[in-house]
Write a structure and sequence with these properties.
- By secondary structure, the protein is mainly α.
- The protein folds into two domains: about 55 residues, no CATH class; about 110 residues, no CATH class.
- Helix content is about 65%, strand content about 5%.
- It is built from seven helices and four strands.
- The chain has a two-stranded antiparallel ribbon with strand order 1-2. A two-stranded antiparallel ribbon has the order 3-4.
- It starts with a helix and ends in a 5-residue tail after the last helix.
- The protein binds zinc ion.
Length: about 180
């Protein structure tokens, strides 16, 4: 049985009439159409795909937790300055997002994974929440006169802008997108 199996590639080469054997374009192993995985560079066997994924997923131990904490702490620290920044939130928040990405990369020694990217996004969002939520409650509970509406809504808008910009900038960088 084993002998026949090993002869398949040679047999296919010697007989032009045979169905062409599909081969993994990385290791050259013959693969069946059912198990072949189509990648941008051609068909690969499942072993090679698994190895590739390991290369892209290099985080270990507490990397994901560390990424989440760093992202959350920087986003939280920055959120204290939003009331003073006002309009300048638009300029500062993307810088903080970049800082988050660079700080995390440094802390986890350039290791990477999808889980780490998600942790960075979650950390930036959750880190902004402690100051965002009370501001939201202010607006929900606000009295119905125009001055209070403007007085409470504007700070909330900047907080939302801050949260969205910090989180999207940090996350976009994990994906290799430059804003
Ligand atoms: Zn292969």
């Amino acid at each position: 049985m084993t002998e026949t199996h090993e002869q398949i590639p040679e047999f296919a080469n010697d007989n032009p009439d045979e169905m062409p054997v599909l081969r993994c374009n990385r290791c050259g192993k013959p693969i069946t159409p059912e198990t072949a995985v189509l990648t941008p560079t051609g068909y690969r066997c499942q072993d090679c795909i698994r190895q590739q994924q390991k290369v892209f997923d290099t985080t270990k131990g507490l990397d994901v937790v560390i990424g989440f904490l760093i992202s959350g702490l920087i986003a939280f620290a920055g959120s204290w300055f939003v009331p003073r920044l006002g309009f300048f939130t638009i300029l500062i928040a993307p810088g903080l997002g970049t800082l988050i990405y660079k700080a995390v990369r440094l802390a986890v020694k350039q290791r990477r994974s999808k889980a780490l990217n998600s942790a960075i996004l979650a950390g930036a969002l959750i880190g902004s929440l402690p100051l965002l939520l009370p501001q939201m409650l202010n607006v929900i509970a606000m009295p119905a006169d125009l001055f209070s509406v403007i007085g409470n809504l504007t700070p909330l808008i900047w907080r939302v802008v801050y949260t969205v910009l910090v989180a999207t900038t940090a996350y976009a960088q994990t994906k290799g997108i430059r804003l």
